[in-house]
Amino acid sequence: MTSTHHRRPQALLTISLEDYFHAGTFGSLIPRGQWYRFESRIEQGLSRTLDLLDEQDATATVFVLGIVAERFPELVRAVRERGHEVASKGYQHQLIHDLPPAALAEDLQRAREAIEGATGEAVAGCRISGWLTPRDSWALDVMADHGYWYDSSMRPFLRSHARVPAARRPHLHHADAMRSIWEIPVSSVSLLGCDLPLGGGNWVRQLPQAVVNSGITHLAQDDAPVVLYFHSWELDPEQPRIDGAAPLARLRHYRNLHRMPDRLRHYLRRFECGSIAGWLAAQPTPHAPPARALGPRQPAGRPTVGGPALVTPARSLPRVAASVVIPCFNEERALPYLANTLQRLESSLGSAYDLRFVVVDDGSTDETLVRARSLFAEWANVTVVHHDRNRGQAAATLSGALASTTEIVCAMDCDCRYDPHELARMIPRLRAGVDLVVASPYHPDGAVRNVPRLQRALSQSLAFFYRSLLRQPLHCYTSGFRVYRRSTLLTLPTLRSGRTGITEMLARLDLAGATIVEHPVVLDARLFGRSRPHAARALAGHAGLLAELVWRRLRGDGRTRATRGELRPQLP
Known about the structure:
By secondary structure, the protein is α/β, with parallel strands linked by helices. The chain folds into two domains: 10-281, TIM Barrel, CATH 3.20.20.370; 320-555, Spore Coat Polysaccharide Biosynthesis Protein SpsA, Chain A (Alpha-Beta Complex).
């Protein structure tokens, strides 16, 4: 009696090695220039991915960003050492539709250098951020020009491949008589004439499992291999939450992350999973993989892209000493983001400025104080100050000034919504005769990005009323990103709680005759936690301050100059 061994259907398993903040879902919210600020979780996602593949005896093609290969070459080598193919996903996750041919060629080359520098092996394939359609054949021509063996950037969706149905399956694209490249599209199923890419990612996580199972069963009956995909961050449900993202973006990114391992196990058990290069090598085609001689592996030493575009002048003069005060209230989740930002700030400005940081925990009810002391324990230039109860941003700023040892005192928010590298331009504006430099996103040369309309309307409306009551007309009175003179700042009395106190600080300095300079900046959306306070509470606070200023105007002392030093701080 003869027994027949049942062979599982073949699948090509593809994985994108990315961090959670690299995800295209957050592309419009998080500029690539701010990636360095985030706490990296790429090692956790990759570790779980490789363990899952080992558990299921599966082999995969892992598409790697060039900046990941530069920053974590040891992780990229681990992928190869555990038997998986390493391919390119471009250098820094730029969407294909934002790249002209020359820029795409540069991105592909830079990514290849970084990845090959990490592995010491030639890169055969690529996947570009932003899915291709048959109309994007120019991009395949560019890849063929640069010697890539295959691309896997097509994902048939709805009617995108209706005119070229053959392009839904792996096929050879001919750029001309001498150049060709394999295209390996992600698998899709047809429903009522529309393609649904059930090969992985969001589709696997979001749709009911019965629906995806039915689609996968249909795909498994085809003679072409099923092409599956997922992202390494999808196996890390503990990743930080980007609260500033739109509700739909949060739903797309976070929903069912905890279910992803079991769903993937279901498919990995069902298919015989291998890499794209392994499958292509077995095809009866004269088209061969690239064979390029590589020199000895070189460390990937090019700086990670995305740092602030500041030119720090070489200085032979002594560095200028400045303190940076950072009020924090329930900012436990934002502190790693802050620490990475301050580290880059110190590196960028260190040749010109001797920076000292004062982190003020303003009576937080979470683990902000514990996390701050832990994160900054090794920083010789960081002081952590604690309030036993919440006293408001103004009081925290004054406490930080009291703890400072420099005449220049800067203040910034913990969530870094204003880029602190702007201090390189703001501090020099605190020249003789100037008492305060205030950042303004509503200045004609400033800007706001992804900020809710209600917040913008509230700030601009308040600015209209404050301009009519104070000496110096400004475009923004609510920004806490400022550069003070410590001697001037400490003349202020106890101020209002909440964020209204920050505006009151500016108003009191203005009425006392201080000179205030406005500096245009960009304001970004808050990424971690929720903005405070609520609009009604903020309006009530500002209404009280405006009423006081109106009363002073009616008394005739709203535009008089007080004697410098007349006010004394009354902080505990």
